[in-house]
Amino acid sequence: MTDSQPRNLQALPKAHLHVHLEGAMRATTLTELADRHGLPANLEGDGSFASFIALYRAACEALRSPDDLSRLVHEIVEDATADGVVWIEISAWVSSAHAERLGLANQVEVLEALLDAGQRAQRKAGIGVGFIVSANRTRPPTEAVELARLAAKHTADGVVGLGLADDETRGAAELFGEAFAVARDAGLIRAPHAGEHGGPDSVRGALDVLGAQRIEHGVRSVEDPELLRRLAAEGVTLDVCPTSNVVLSVVPSLDAHPLPRLLEAGVPLSLNADDPLFFGSGILAEYELGRHSFGLDDLTLAHIARCSIRASGAPDKLKTAALAAIDRWSA
Ligand SMILES: [Zn+2]
Question: Does a structural domain hold residue 3?
């Protein structure tokens, strides 16, 4: 499309489906909280996945009270609203270590504090807020089962899915089948990370063993044409984060990013920021990058926004209104 006047991407209604709680902290907030609590807040990484995880843990460390947590959720929702997001799903791992730092009794209280902050932020901002309880691949699978059961108990107050994150080279999908079966029985969206540092086999594992309906990243599916056909046929959405992929060397450059090939193969995909704190890019910037670096036209960007809404755990009413607004945007 050769619009002389490109449409305003901020005004394109979109869902942010792949964004991690602590990784979405504003840099200014991290500095302020770290100062207040007398902690180092070194934001300099060396681009490796290990240094990224170390930085992520530093952001976790900076949260020292339920008020800090509430502030974080409110700021994430404010930033999303400013980017034209109408529905956000914040991924959060909760553990006894989180509880201890926050001065709460256990991980149940951490999740309840998050959900409460999410509901208040939602009312204030006027956009929809959901949570994905994220299990951690580097932890024992029994912990994931426990988290899935916890998530299943909170579907009425904001939990929409079960995720699986952290170092993909550890913790094969096979170990987490039981947790994702609990999620399936509870009607939660199964949205594990796969196909980022692991290849097509990790994506197949997520589909076959975990019953994944969405794959966080999944970009390495491009290495296997048969897998691409399957993703397209089964309508599995890839929640793609181009800037994150470049910073973490999943791809050597934006030019080499498989996003255009995934679109061409008919795989549903959404655009996401992953961890704006570390990658310096919010979701609107990813849509801008879609336009400027990948040369996507407005109809394709609207298609991506539609995919994000359809694949989300948003209530039907919100989905219908957002899809109609995307039609108006692209008309
Ligand atoms: Zn992620």
Answer: no
CA of 254 to the centre of ligand 1 (A): 18
Tell me whether residue 221 is in a domain.
yes
From 61, 196, 216, 286, active-site residue: 196
Residue 12 lies in a domain: no
Task: Report how far ligand 1's centroid is from the alpha carbon of 4 (Å).
Answer: 35
How many angstroms separate the alpha carbon of residue 275 from the centre of ligand 1?
A: 7
CA–CA distance, 63 with 125 (Å, rounded to integer): 22
pLDDT tens series, the chain, 331 aa: 444 678 999 999 999 999 999 999 998 998 899 889 888 766 666 767 777 777 788 899 999 999 999 999 999 999 999 999 999 999 999 999 999 999 999 999 999 999 999 999 999 999 999 999 999 999 999 999 999 999 999 999 999 999 999 878 777 888 999 999 999 999 999 999 999 989 999 999 999 999 999 999 999 999 999 999 999 999 999 999 999 999 989 999 999 999 999 999 999 999 999 999 988 889 999 999 999 999 999 999 999 999 999 999 999 999 999 999 999 999 9
Q: How many domains does the chain have?
A: 1
Range of the domain at 156: 18-330
CATH of the domain at 85: 3.20.20.140
How far is ligand 1, taken at its centre, from the CA of residue 325, in Å? 28
C-alpha–C-alpha distance, residues 117 and 104, integer Å? 15
Distance 3 CA to ligand 1 centre (A): 33
78 is catalytic: no
Amino acid at 285: A
Phi-psi label, residue 195: left if phi above 0, alpha if psi -120 to 50, beta otherwise? left
E-state strands within 283-328: none
